[in-house]
Amino acid sequence: MIRKYIFGSPVQTGAVIENIPVSKEHPDFGNIVTMTPFCWKYTMQHDTRIFGLGESVRGMNKRGYLYESWCSDVPRQDEGTKSMYGAHNFFIVKESSLHETFGVFFDTGSRVSFDFGYSDYSEISVSCQDTGVVLYVITADANRGKESTLNNITRQFRKIIGMSYVPPMWGFGYQQSRWGYKTEDDVREIVNKHKQYGLPLEAVCLDIDYMEDYKDFSVDKKKFPDLKAFSQELKNDGVRLVPIIDAGVKLLDGYEVYDEGKENNYFCKKEDGKADYVAGVWPGRSCFPDFLRSDVRAWFGSKYKNLTDLGIEGFWNDMNEPAMFYSDESLAAAFEKLETFKGKNLDINTFFDFSAVSGSTFNRLDDYQRFYNRAETLEGEQKPHRHDTVHNLFGGKMTQAASEGLKSLMPEKRCLLYSRASCIGSHRYGGIWTGDNNARWNHMEQEIKMLPGLNMCGYLYSGADIGGFAEQTTEDLMLRWMSLGIFTPLMRNHAAWDAREKELYRFSKEATDSFRSILKLRYALLPYIYSEYVKAAVNSEMFIRPLCFDFENDRRALEIQDQLFVGEGIMIAPVCRQNENGRMVYFPEPMIQVTWKDGKTKCKNIKAGDSYIEMPLDSVVFFVRKGKIVPLFEPVMNTSQMKNNKYDLVGKGKSYELYEDDGFTSDIHLEGRIRILR
């Protein structure tokens, strides 16, 4: 059952697509402490657990910490980070009594603060300072059959927010990326090296280096003289290019995108409603399209034609929180402040004040308060709203602009699209990667704990930068993270310009051989991953789940935060500690252990309970659930070579229902597309 409540004057976020009547009663759970500003509180029991909140740090169970829903550029994230790149305001309060378990979604574009027992361990407090909130409270269906309460509440929520984005099949292949592939020759070398070493490769992502002076929808012809011919050359080998697009448009007269945006008043305005807001990003002084306006989204989405005409079928949108290095105002204030230090004896206090000035202009709250978006009210009236009051919608609306533009340009074909910033609602238009992580073992573990929350909020197509975007990765971390990455829908190896070069062939021969084996397993599993993903999207289910979502009465399963179910038939338990060759694994039911190495599998029966499982660094170990089978197909170099007629089945189930389509169709449905494998 879903109940809807409205408090204050919310804007239209577009998150919920079903028409749910507004309840006049008081919410069944918790108390509304104040309506303006909004504050909701709930008293927890001693064993209450909290699941959800999408892209957020710490455990799958969120109890005990503070979180903020505020799309942020956080290149140095850790377990103390309160805000990430996404704003995903849905969570489930799991009580020991299932009829007291419920889900809540706070639908707003404003900053939301979540105190999950930090100030008072027995209390949840959710507050929103700015525009109003639409509150949805969800309880499990009484006639849910064998479906768990947690899965049922999640499915109801997923249904009202609409079907998750489904990428083309090639989007499930292995992507190689780096900030620093500057020329056509750089990319060609990457592709040729993968072929030379027998490493499967689906796509190469282009960071800002391909652009002319960091201008959106431009190509530097000195670096890429004929991108259309080059794109086709790579496609002939089954490899695609995936270029980046940023939110900021370079302020430059004569630059087509800027000129059109300025002439048509498409950019965000200052308070006077006339002057375009200007801030610095990659190209320097830039303007920001007002993505909350449908006409601006249509215009910006049409600009992708500049690149689709060159054969491009996939994009990643970046810097769309939006990230800002400075505004004209904050930069002027910083220079003025620096002047005050001239000629002074800088002691311990003044030196640290001085050193902080250069970074003081980065993503400032007062800069977000300097400009305005035009957002729709629930009554359909478009009004100016100060940006910070609708901030969390910006990146998701950019994704919507891109998706709708690409559908208009290629209506019969799905394109690959993923973003850094997001909000619930944009999950219908594209996926996400989880931003600028680091080459640390705990960041790999963070991904494991984050994936279920993302799935709860509709972001099935998600994944982290394998091996870490920043810092210097190690060979063993890459091997372990790749062994996790083969089970995530988005599988991308991406790195910063100053990080270690970590293309898989740059490591030792032994490691390269193991990477080849790992990638072969990815492509052997890819039809299963694609099939389970589409079924999860169509049925409003989770592709990746915690153990307790299927075994909610199992107290041990409730405690497990580093194992995952992947689709209907697989459980994984990644090793995320250095120099460990195995780990303890909890089995809520008997399973089949599958060890993969060099295209060969070894299977072993495992009893329910706790077992120590050896997991050699050169192998991948996963588990097939009781009564299930998983198909392993013949590995290929990329999806253009895929043939689904040769496969082996692992597990002890009777059959597997494989979803199949042409990998591109925009008409997604299950009827008539299921093949039974026995």
TrEMBL record:
<feature type="domain" description="Glycoside hydrolase family 31 TIM barrel">
    <location>
        <begin position="165"/>
        <end position="531"/>
    </location>
</feature>
<dbReference type="InterPro" id="IPR048395">
    <property type="entry name" value="Glyco_hydro_31_C"/>
</dbReference>
<dbReference type="Pfam" id="PF13802">
    <property type="entry name" value="Gal_mutarotas_2"/>
</dbReference>
<dbReference type="InterPro" id="IPR030458">
    <property type="entry name" value="Glyco_hydro_31_AS"/>
</dbReference>
<dbReference type="GO" id="GO:0030246">
    <property type="term" value="F:carbohydrate binding"/>
</dbReference>
<dbReference type="GO" id="GO:0005975">
    <property type="term" value="P:carbohydrate metabolic process"/>
</dbReference>
<comment type="similarity">
    <text>Belongs to the glycosyl hydrolase 31 family.</text>
</comment>
<keyword id="KW-0378">Hydrolase</keyword>
<protein>
    <submittedName>
        <fullName>Alpha-glucosidase</fullName>
    </submittedName>
</protein>
<dbReference type="Pfam" id="PF01055">
    <property type="entry name" value="Glyco_hydro_31_2nd"/>
</dbReference>
<keyword id="KW-0326">Glycosidase</keyword>
<dbReference type="InterPro" id="IPR017853">
    <property type="entry name" value="GH"/>
</dbReference>
<dbReference type="GO" id="GO:0004553">
    <property type="term" value="F:hydrolase activity, hydrolyzing O-glycosyl compounds"/>
</dbReference>
<dbReference type="InterPro" id="IPR000322">
    <property type="entry name" value="Glyco_hydro_31_TIM"/>
</dbReference>
<dbReference type="Pfam" id="PF21365">
    <property type="entry name" value="Glyco_hydro_31_3rd"/>
</dbReference>
<dbReference type="InterPro" id="IPR011013">
    <property type="entry name" value="Gal_mutarotase_sf_dom"/>
</dbReference>
<feature type="domain" description="Glycoside hydrolase family 31 N-terminal">
    <location>
        <begin position="42"/>
        <end position="115"/>
    </location>
</feature>
<dbReference type="InterPro" id="IPR025887">
    <property type="entry name" value="Glyco_hydro_31_N_dom"/>
</dbReference>
<feature type="domain" description="Glycosyl hydrolase family 31 C-terminal">
    <location>
        <begin position="542"/>
        <end position="630"/>
    </location>
</feature>
